[in-house]
Amino acid sequence: SGIGYDAGLKLAKKGYHVFLTTEDDKQLEVLREKVEGIDNIGTFRLNVNKKEDIENLKKFDVDVLILNAAVGQGGSIIDIDMKKIKECYDVNIFSNIDILKIVLKNMLKKNDGKIILISSMLANISLPFFGIYASTKASLTMIGKCLRKELKIINDKIYK
Hints:
The chain is mainly α. Helix content is about 50%, strand content about 10%. The protein is built from 5 helices and 4 strands; from the N terminus they run H-E-H-E-H-E-H-E-H. The radius of gyration is 17 Å and the shape is globular.
C-alpha cells in the first residue's frame, strides 16, 4: 500500500517487471486481487521480521531495490516500552540492512543496480514525541550516505 504500491504501479505501467511485497498472507491476498491481470507485477510475502522471508530474496535478480519497510513509534522517549523501541529499530534499520546486504551482493556481481532507501524528513528535524522513529530514520539516512561513498570506493578499485 502507499508509496510502494503507487511506485510499483507507475513502474509497471512503464513496462518494468515489478515485485510488490506485503507483511502477511492476508495482505498478500488483497494485493493480488488489486493487481490481478497486470502481467508484469509479481507479489510475495516479505515479512521483514522473518529471516526465511528475507533469505527468499536470494533467488531474485533485482535491478532496483526500494526499501520502504517501516513502523512508526510515537510517544515520549522515557515512556515508550523498550520492546516497542526494539521493534522500531528492528523493522526500520536492521531489516533494511539485511535486505540490502542480500540484494547488493548480486548487484555488485553484475556491476549494476540501484538502491533507494525511503527515509523521512524527521531524520533531520527534532520533534517532541517522535524521537524513536526519527532516530531510526536518521540512522537509515546516514547508512545510505555512507554506503554510497563505500560503493564508489569499491567501484573505483575494481574498475581502475
